[in-house]
Design goal:
Elements (H helix, E strand, L loop, with lengths): L1 E7 L2 H8 L9 E7 L6 H12 L9 E7 L10 H15 L6 E6 L6 E7 L13 H16 L17 H19 L3 H9 L3 E7 L6 E8 L2 E4 H4 L7 H16 L16 H22 L12 H16 L4
Antiparallel strand pairs: 1-3, 2-4, 3-5, 4-5, 6-7, 7-8
Helix pairs in contact: 1-2, 3-4, 5-6
Length: about 325
């Protein structure tokens, strides 16, 4: 649920738009009316105009609100449900005790309705528009939470190809800015990425200073302030600076050092060979001692000498003198 609220001074134009009277490509129907004759657009306009004469100090007497919902909620949003949500929205916004109509447009995929109301109420008092944008955002959020409506991604889910004129250009700029914010490490990279999409961004400085107070974006010959691209400040100078700083930190952040492997002595071929030779020598010595020197292993081995030694040992045991 997204609400857009504005004010003006032409009831005829606003009512005819809400009823889609002069647009053959759009279809609309009147869902509800309060304190006006609704048999025709002319009678509705006449009723609004009559009441607004009660307070000629009000410069913008026309109030207009569009309430848009996610396509995921279409099955739940019958005409009665849409009227109920619109009326609860008006009460929470403090728009009460006045004339209004609620119409539903059927030309888009997402359900949405339009509310036209008289800012001069039934007692001739002016309905306040103080902080209406902030209140609008808070009321929509509260209603979504209360009724379990879909929390969408806002402008990221808008189908650009369905838009026309300035609305399409603003949406294209918005998407390009969000993409550039995710990767740009400095202002030059940010501007270069937007230029690839045919968008020029300029800083606005306070008079006589180097302090930046705003941005403007130009595409296809149309120029918009940052606030006209997104009212929540997603395209503002401050928000972009914060995004660039985050990207810089992410790029320069040094990962924690991995633990150094413990050094171990390298086993060279010479070491292995020497240890092998020592082991063989020990085994040979043990074998020779265990067998009573029957076997003598070494480079000085002589079979005749060994036979003589054995013969002498036999005679000694028998007591034969030589």
């Amino acid at each position: 649920m997204i609400g857009k609220i504005s004010s003006g001074s032409n009831f005829a134009k606003c009512v005819e738009y809400a009823l889609a009277e002069n647009e053959s490509t759009k279809e609309a129907k009147l869902l509800f009316s309060e304190d006006v004759m609704d048999d025709s657009s002319k009678s509705i306009i006449a009723g609004f105009e009559c009441q607004r004469q009660m307070n000629k100090r009000v410069e913008k007497w026309v109030g207009h609100i569009s309430l848009s919902y996610s396509p995921e909620d279409s099955a739940r949003l019958s005409d009665d449900a849409m009227v109920m949500l619109a009326q609860e929205y008006l009460v929470n916004m403090g728009i009460v005790n006045t004339q209004y109509i609620i119409t539903r447009h059927l030309d888009k995929e997402h359900p949405h309705c339009h509310i036209v109301y008289n800012r001069v109420d039934n007692d001739g008092k002016c309905i306040s528009d103080s902080n209406e944008r902030l209140r609008n955002k808070e009321v929509c959020k509260a209603l979504k939470k209360k009724y379990g409506l879909t929390f969408g991604n806002g402008k990221e889910k808008v189908k650009t190809e369905r838009l026309r004129g300035g609305s399409k250009t603003r949406q294209e700029i918005y998407l390009a800015v969000q993409a550039a914010k995710r990767t740009a490490k400095d202002w030059i990279a940010f501007q270069r990425q937007l230029a690839q999409s045919g968008i020029n961004v300029r800083k606005k400085f306070k008079r006589g200073t180097t302090e930046v107070e705003g941005l403007s974006y130009t595409k296809d010959g149309r120029r918009f302030k940052a606030s006209q691209i997104d009212r929540d400040g997603k395209c503002s100078y401050k928000t972009i600076c914060e995004a660039i700083d985050r990207n810089k930190k992410a790029r320069t952040q040094i990962p924690s050092a991995a633990p150094k492997p413990q050094l171990r002595p390298v086993k060279t071929i010479q070491n292995i060979a020497a240890k092998t030779a020592d082991s063989v020598a020990e085994i040979a010595a043990d074998m020779a001692g265990g067998l009573g020197n029957i076997v003598n292993i070494g480079p000085g081995f002589d079979p005749q000498e060994e036979e003589f030694i054995r013969e002498m040992q036999r005679r000694k045991k028998k007591g034969i003198r030589l």
